[in-house]
Prior knowledge:
The chain is of the alpha+beta class. The protein has helices at 2-7, 91-94, 130-134, and strands at residues 12-13, 23-30, 42-50, 56-60, 67-70, 80-88. Helix content is 11%, strand content 27%. It has a 6-stranded antiparallel beta sheet. The longest helix has 6 residues, at 2-7.
Amino acid sequence: NQCYQVDTLPIDLKEEEMKPGDLVFYSATYYNPKMKKQKHDMVHVEIFMGGETREQSIGSRWQKGVVQLFDSYKFVSTSYHSIKFHYKSIDTWLEGICRSWCNEHSWKSSNLLWAPNKKSIFTDKEEYTEADLDAPG
């Protein structure tokens, strides 16, 4: 989630240094006190695109599960307030480095040991037979 992602990106940027593909993280406070508090208060993340407005982003907002292009990453949320933006370079990931740089959270979990399944674009197709790839699931 966005909490783990922000911990794996050590390069902070200024807004004017953002390049398409970099990430904009949102820390904020939920209006509903029953909502689970997130590490670093991170509640949302979007992909910075820049574009004509210099604020375009790609993201999924309002819990609708629809990803779309927005004219600006700046928006008013109905779920949280006091939004602070955190601009992060993805260069570390592009160099193949993905580990936590946070001293506060260890992120030791079996959930982090992800491996692609046979339908993934990251799967080495040579490991599977044609019948494996056509099988459901």
